[in-house]
Amino acid sequence: MSTLTDNIRAASTVQALVQLLKNRSYDEIRQRMYDNPPGSPWWSACKTELDVRNSERMATALVDTSRVLDKMRVSTEHLDASTDKLLTAATDISESLRSTRELGRKMEIAGYVMVAVSILQLFYVIFLVFGKR
Is the dihedral of CA 41, 47, 48, 53 positive or negative? Predict the structure, then answer.
């Protein structure tokens, strides 16, 4: 029966010490924990308070990570849509360049034809001028 009473007293002592540690800094609590032997009320109180603070930090970090992941998901979706638009624009430009290349070839052939016709007309004029003399 005395061990149950001792356990209750130790637990209430640890709870009281945890309340005392609420306003202490993280480093001070860690130092007190290292200064006391494992299993002592101070060590247990320090361990409990550090575990609580670490859990709070972990919860905050998880919430922040969740927010960042949501932002990254939105950014990824936006980037995906932008990539699709860019691909469509690049395809359109490529098709325009192909048709422009084909028109350029046709213009080149038309230029050669015009030069050839001009040379033929020049020879015809020369033949007419020298043929009458």
Answer: positive
